[in-house]
Amino acid sequence: MNKERFDYRTGILGSPAEVDAAEWNALVARQAQPTPFLRHEFLSALHAARCATPDAGWAPQFVTLADARTNRLVAAAPVYLKGHSYGEYVFDWAWADAYKRNGIEYYPKLLCAVPFTPVQGTRLIAADETARRHLAATLLAFAEQADVSSLHVLFPTADEAGAMTDLGMMQREGVQFHWLNDGYRNFDDFLSTLEQKKRKNIRAERRKVREAGVSTRRVRGEDISDADWRFFSRCYRQTYREHFSTPYLNLDFFRMIGESMPENLMLVIAEYEGKPIASSLVVYQRSENGSGGTLYGRYWGALEHVPCLHFETAYYQPLEFCIEEKLAVFEGGAQGEHKMARGFMPTVTRSTHWLAHPAFADAVSRFLDDEKHHIHSYVDELNEHNPFRP
Fold this sequence. Notes:
Oligomer: single chain
GO molecular function: transferase activity
CATH superfamily of the largest domain: Gcn5-related N-acetyltransferase (GNAT)
Strand order of the largest sheet: 2-5-6-8-15-9-14-13-12-11-10
Order of helices and strands: EHHEEEEHEEHEHEHHEHHEEEHEEH
Helix content: 25-40%
Protein name: N-acetyltransferase
Number of strands: 15
Number of helices: 11
Organism: Paraburkholderia dinghuensis
Keywords: Transferase
CATH architecture of the largest domain: 3-Layer(aba) Sandwich
Largest sheet: 11 strands, mixed
Radius of gyration: 22 Å
Distance between the termini: 59 Å
Structural class: alpha+beta
Strand content: 25-35%
Pfam family, one: FemAB_like
Number of domains: 2
């Protein structure tokens, strides 16, 4: 019996600019769980604005497969050679520390992820499942042959995580909090499904913002002015300043995505006496058929403190937008049990990991088994405190 042969040409690219944007985006659009963050425009902006570049500890090593006959792109993955573990949101600092204490180098490592973006979705972009399997195998072979300690695939789909574990990678689980649109007619309809105390608290929080004299406006991507972007960037930097850390992104990046993918962006701007004082940026994507889609909470900041303003700009205004636009899911980002009181429920996320050192791989495998049990118990406990009425 003749077996069909598949011939692919492998590429390791040092910049997103080295792959055709139209071919990349066409592949992304065909995925079961595409996100705006996988678009060529988003990844290119990270590189062009020097947010994810070698001098920032993010050296692009994008892995691509092209049909050897037509040279058409059939699979790709955003891969980076990392010199640190910042901006990943799946924490392996303890692993790096254990390597260091034993005199072994943990960096560089290979990372398949969207920089600074803890959003689950497709990571192995492919034209079909055959190409996806070849890409997964190529990614692991690349790691095995490179001078790296490890390979990490962050926030893939469940199917991709399964495919990578079938190849011998270890799977890790985490928890995020997502809001699901149950066909709500308006915000009050959503509130009516919550327990009385939760409903009362949300109304009180929104009232505090109004009574402080603060108003909000939503600005869709195509209407965001350069002044809006400059103001938002100030707010974003202020958030990092308050946490004594350095921001990952910059004004050039926000300007670039504002220009190249406005249909996926919205700013919420809070104003007091006609002056902007706070802002949040959300990213969203509608489903192919126009019904449903996902909104992603991303960045927030304020130049003046107003009680409960964070909840209004980063949660309640985006929730109203989801209901009005009939978006199905609001992913609230990394961590945050406080989101449950606002209708967000725990959701398990995944990552997969390969470590070259056998002894460390065995130790991490045992750690992940224990951690998995703790994660499941944690989710069960959270679900027992469901904020919705019985």
